[in-house]
Each structure stands twice: as C-alpha cells, then as structure tokens.
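Submission sheet (multi-component)
Chains listed below:
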Amino acid sequence: MIEVKNLKKSYGNKDNVFPVLKGIDLKIHTGDFVVILGASGSGKSTLLNVISGLEKPDEGHIYYDQTDITTLSDIQLTDFRKKYIGFIFQQYYLLPHLNVDKNVKMGADLISNKDYHKIIKAVGLENKCNKFPGELSGGEQQRVSVARALAKKPEVLFLDEPTGALDEEMGRKLLNYISQLQKEYVFTIVMVTHNQNIAEMANTVIKMNSGKISDIYTNAYTKNAFEIGW
Amino acid sequence: MPLRLDGDDMIVGIKDATKLIGITIIACCAVLVCTMFLNFYLDILNIKDQIISPPVMAFYDAQVSTAFVVSSVSGGCLLMTSIVMLLFYIKHYINTHKKELGILKVIGYSNLTIAKDFWVFGLSVLIGTLIGYAGGHLLMPLFYGIQNEDKVLPEIAIHFHPGLFFCLIIIPSVFFAIISIFYSYRQLKKPVMTLMKDNDQQNVHISKHSQKNKNHSFLDELKSATLKSRKTLVFFIVFASFCFSSMTQMSARMPELSSFMMGAMILLIGITLACTTLFLAITTVINGNTKTIAMMRVFGYSQKQCCHALLGGYRPLTYIGFIIGTFYQYALIKIMVNIVFKDIVGVPEVHFDFISMIISFIAFVIIYELIMYVYAEKINKISIKEIMIE
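Outcome: structure written.
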C-alpha cells in the first residue's frame, strides 16, 4: 500500500514561491487502478512525480508499506525505482537507435528478465521486434513503452497522460492492453489524465484542483476501454 | 536561437559562433606554427646567395625542407581537422535547431537566406588565426635566435611578409565562412516536415542486421548503438588520442633533433589539441544523450551503468588512436632524418623510444580517466526532470 501524508511541493525561488501541492493525504491500495483527474496546473503531474520518487517533496511523507521514500538518498531512490516502479510518459522516450526488442530489454535487463518477449507479444508487437521507433506509429511506440515498463515487473506502474498523444482508436487499444496486462501480471496503476472518461475504467478516482484533492471516490462498476466515452 | 525579426537580426548569432572554440583553438595552433615556419622559410630563402660551401648548402637545404614540411604537414592536418569539425558542428547545430529553422522555412525564408547567416562561423577561424598569427610573431625572435645560435648559416633576420597575413588569416576565414554557407545550404535542403519532426526519431542509420539475433545486454547494445550513431565523434576521439600520442612522443625527441623550444611547442600544441578535441567530442556525446540518460535514471540504472553504456565504448578506440600516433610519429621522424637530413653530418640515428612511449601512455591514461571522471559527475547531475519538461 502507498500512503501519502501532508505532501507539499512548491516551485520558484525565495521571492516568488508557487505552491503546487498544498498538503495531500491519500492511500492507494495494492492492485488498485487509480486515476488522477484535473485541469492543467492542478498539480496532478507533480503529485505523480513526487509519489513515484522522481521528485522530492518539500514536506510530507510517502510510505510504500513501511518505507518512507522521502528519506531516501538519490542512490537509494534510484534503486527503489529499479525494484518497484514502472513509468509510461505521454512522450514515449524510446531510444531511437535501438530496435523494439532492445528498447524493451532496457527494462528487462534491470531484473534479468529473460522472458520479456512474452510482454512484447502481449502488446501485439511480436512481429515488430526489429523495427526502430521511427518506423512505428504513435500507438505502437506507446505500446513499446508499456512493454518496456512492464518488462521490469514493477509493483506500481505510473502513467502520465499515456493517451495524450494518441487518437481515439489507438488510445482505446492502449488502455485495453494496460488493463488486460494488469489482470495478468497484477500491479498497481496510478494514471494521470485530463480525460474524464478514462476515470470510468478506474477503481479509485482522485480529482485535483489548485494543488489539493477536491474529491476521491470509488467506482462500484468499472468499464473497459471500449465501453467508455472519449 | 534568435529568430529573424527584421533585416538586421541574425538567424545564427555571434554567440553561436563562440561555441566553435575547438575550431578557434585548432586554427590558432595551425597558424602559430605556420606563421613561424613560413616566415622562417621566406627569410631563409633570402640568404641562399650568401652560401658557398657544399656542406653548408646541404644544411641550408635541410633547414628549408624542414620549414616547408613542418608548416605543410601541421597546417594541412589541422586544416583538414578544422573542416571536419566545422561540418560536424554545422550539422549538429541544424539538427538541434531544426524545429526553429523549419518554422523559418514555413514562414517563407529561403534556404539561401537562412544559410547566408552561417557565415558567422568563419569568425571562429578569424579569431583563432589572429591569435595564432600574433603568437607566432611574439615567439619569432626566440625561434630565430635558436636557429641562428649555431652560426652555421649566415644570420637570418626577421622580415614582415604581408602575404602571410593574407594567406594565413584572410583566406582561411573567408574559406571557412563560404564552407559554412555552402554546407548549411545543403543541410537545409531537407523538406520542411522533416525539419519539423521530432529530433529523436530521425537520422537512425543503424544497420538492422547489427541488432538482430544477438543476445547482448541492453547496456552493451546501447554502447554499440552510441558508437555507431555518431561516427564523426569516433573520428574526433581517435584523433585526440592520436594527437596526444604522436605529439608528446615527438616533442621528447626534439631537444636532440632540433631544439628544446621546438619540443615544448609541439608538446603544448599536442596536449591542447587532444584535450580540446576530447572535451568537445565527449560533451557532444553527453548532450546528445541527455534524454537517454534521464530515462535510464528513471528506470533505475545507476550513474556507473549510464557512463559505461555511453562512454565505455570509446576507451578501446582511444588506445587504437594512441598506437597509430606512436607509429606515425616514429615513421615521420625516421623519414625526416633519413630523407631530409640524409646529407647532414652528426644527425642522431632514430630508434624507437620505448621510455617516451610509456611516459606518454601513462600521462594519456591519467588525463583521459580524469576527463571521464569529470563527465561521470556531469552525468550524475543530469536531472530526471529533463524528460518531464517537454
């Protein structure tokens, strides 16, 4: 379980402080599918970055079970991300000089996962292993980044606007792959999006406004990627 | 990059030209050596009529040949290196600013209009050649003094040759400005949409076959891809170790073959060239892979692993450059002594200097590893935010 207590984060300098997170408290249960919704500037991406250990908060604590990651050094945080966390960004950030297979290997090698081809197959790219990112469509590139993130078998997968650069068809397919893979590999999902429809796929929805949580609710019934609106 | 606002604004600013510090340093070294030796060459021709004795004439001929060979070889080699470096920098500049340049083309600026502003890169050569020329003239009294010391030849006086100013400063600066315009024009001929597309997804020239059916680790694959993706950088890194090896070992022989001053000058130029080239090449590798490093750090790769993947591949190449440099300097000195000085009495025989090579190699390893350490620290400072700011 992830527990966040009184999380605060500001940007700017001494004279010009801009608070982005103004005291966030929340709990995320293992295996949950959490969607963080909010308008631009609401602090949702910052919250994701801080919870995932990419950025350090100014105040507050983030517990992964018993470990408070706010107390970890940079080296310890790197090791923590290596063992527990997977990331998918809006921009896919694939390595352009490596083919699909080698890009996925980037994740797999961290835990000596020799079986990573299963995940490439699971995202429907088994015939594109030798293609380079520049030869793939946006949806395919994002599927590679999904495979790369899951190849290291993370306990928590963080996604920052994963469908932001995709059209509806590609977006739906990608979300379907992710939710199917969650069932198969069992991991927690924390996804930031501004698309309210995607919230219908989640167990827990967190709404952010001006650096604070304005609402948290759970969905009694969750829809699949092809049932939601767009 | 400052976008063109009106007729007076530059697309490529003078600030951009200052980034070509490597070319400035190389131009400075080349012109420093050429100024001294060509001036000496022209002045020594004036005393030919005063020489009667055949052995003195043989010595005179050797001096003339030395001045000519040294200025041609050093000038020629450094000119070629500067051209390669300039072309590499222009290509790199256009690649990193392709979106802005694409926008200018969309607005309606022609390739030639944009390319014309690349003339400012010639300024880096102008600055380097001016410094080199002034330095050459400052050192000239000392250089002539050493040449006149043994009194074998009649006194050689320093004369000012305006033609050299033209040939060593004006012509190279104009030549490099024209190359910059021409080459940037060629690079800008790409379709607008190619320029506007995401930088990271283009110009992948890795052989597909090279990544098939091999079970190398990700880090080894990345190391190999990094090397193959920028072959010009491989050239620069090999060239840096080649320069260091050949010039430091050559400098060790100079007190015996020529003078201590000559040795010190070659040593200084060798180390400056090697370090400048190495710094520029490694900086380009790191800057070109910032996002890769950031992404690796996000995934949990350590600083050591990032360094190994991106810089580790260059180490064996530097050793190859060092070996080539060692044999090159040995062969060059052997040729100089056996051909140029063959009629001169008392010229020492050239043997392979194993001790100089060992000292040079140890110095090289220390300098190389220090530079790598500096860059490892730089890699460590790359923020993960690099990949979040887009």
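Remark: Chain A has a mean pLDDT of 90.
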